[in-house]
Specification:
Elements: H1 3-33, H2 37-53, H3 63-69, E1 72-73, H4 89-104, E2 121-125, H5 132-142, E3 146-149, H6 152-155, H7 162-176, E4 180-185, H8 200-214, E5 224-230, H9 238-242, E6 246-249, H10 255-265, H11 277-283, H12 289-310, H13 351-376, H14 379-382
Parallel strand pairs: 2-5, 2-6, 3-4, 4-5
Antiparallel strand pairs: 1-3
Subcellular location: Mitochondrion outer membrane
Organism: Bifiguratus adelaidae
Protein name: AAA+ ATPase domain-containing protein
Length: about 375
């Protein structure tokens, strides 16, 4: 080979090597400057962990699906069951028959007419504190379906077009992991009525969500349900309501429902022999399930507080964390709970006074919300 040819070959080889080195160096620099690199890496690790707990391995996911997979909730992470929910037995039974059974036993709900099967969407609506989110938790625990607890912040991104890709990844992941339930708490904040002054990105996200949920290319054999909870159903877009044919009104508990809720909450509590459950049920008219839980929590604290105040602090240093170090807490003598504890006034916090104010406020506000809800939806859906 001529010396001149050797020189040309060496120059070409050197140029090729320099270009390869430049490519990888440039790629490394750009990658180190990528602000989303750590986020994607964290999402991949978390999604692998979540899917691994579910026994799913070697499932190929896109980078957007990995972000959505971080929202998947394993049933073992939730300890609420339908048995722990009082006063909502008819709704629970309907959820079993219309949601859980079609998802878990598709062979029973298959027909040529396509009339059987799970609905595309389910809406739980009613006043605050009446058990909507608790029902969703129990559904996640007992359905044995992939439960995606979707936070709207997961779908938002500062880069144009990324939110639509995340919405698309939501349904593609749900399809890979079906049967699946996509839960959106306070769905009215995301799927509110569309207006001409809405931001362009918000409108695009809603359109993408609806077309993938129930659009032209949506198959009838998919086992994906969108579950929403709200106390403002009149703010939800009509196109969204159309896609949620199953709607359950979670109203303030009746007297019988309050009795059921209180019996569940107090079943493991040491009650006085003179405790009158019926009197407590009557005096809590207008309370929601959340109000009843807080009332029971405050009442259960009173005997404990009395015991703590009866014990002399053993620490002379005046440090609160060491006050009870010398007390035999295994053999503590705490009196049973009495009816008066539920309505006692704590001088430090005036809890009962606050509860009274809360009760009058909640009764009025819950009634107002209930009226708005019933005015917002057709009467035949409320009966």
């Amino acid at each position: 080979m001529q010396p001149q040819t050797k020189k040309y070959v060496a120059d070409v080889a050197l140029f090729a090597i320099s270009q390869v080195a430049f490519y990888y160096a440039f790629k490394y620099i750009v990658g180190s400057l990528d602000p989303t690199k750590s986020k994607r890496k964290e999402a991949k690790l978390k999604s692998d962990k979540v899917l691994g707990r579910m026994g799913i391995k070697d499932l190929k996911l896109s980078e957007y699906e990995e972000i959505i997979a971080t929202e998947v909730v394993h049933p073992d992470e939730i300890h609420i069951t339908f048995k722990q929910i009082g006063g909502l037995d008819p709704i629970i039974q309907s959820l079993r028959e219309s949601v859980i059974y079609p998802l878990c036993y598709p062979q029973l709900f298959t027909s040529a007419s396509g009339l059987l099967g799970a609905p595309k969407g389910v809406l739980l609506y009613g006043p605050p504190g009446c058990g909507k989110t608790m029902l969703a938790k129990a559904l996640a625990h007992e359905s044995n379906a992939t439960f995606i607890n979707l936070h709207i912040s997961t779908l938002t991104d500062k880069w144009f077009g990324e939110s639509n890709k995340l919405v698309s990844a939501l349904f593609s992941l749900a399809k890979k992991l079906q049967p699946a339930i996509i839960f959106i708490d306070e769905i009215d904040s995301f799927m509110r009525e569309r207006r001409s002054n809405d931001h362009e990105i918000t409108g695009m996200m809603k359109a993408e969500f609806m077309s993938l949920w129930d659009g032209l290319t949506t198959g009838e054999d998919t086992r994906i349900i969108v579950l929403g909870a709200t106390n403002r159903p009149n703010d939800i877009d009509q196109a969204i309501l159309r896609r949620m044919p199953k709607r359950f009104a979670i109203r303030l508990p009746t007297e019988g429902q309050r009795r059921n809720i209180l019996e569940i909450m107090l079943k493991d509590v040491d009650l006085s022999p003179q405790f009158e459950m019926e009197a407590l049920v009557r005096r809590t008219a207008g309370y929601s399930g959340s109000d009843l839980k807080e009332l029971c929590r405050n009442a259960a604290m009173i005997p404990v507080r009395e015991f703590v105040r009866s014990v002399e602090p053993t620490s002379g240093a005046g440090i609160a964390s060491a006050d009870l170090d010398g007390v035999d807490l295994e053999n503590k003598n705490i009196r049973p709970l009495e009816l008066e504890d539920f309505f006692a006034v704590d001088e430090a916090t005036l809890a009962a006074a606050g509860a009274s104010i809360s009760k009058s406020y909640n009764t009025a506000s819950h009634a107002s919300v209930s009226a708005q809800i019933e005015d917002a939806l057709p009467q035949d859906l409320l009966d």
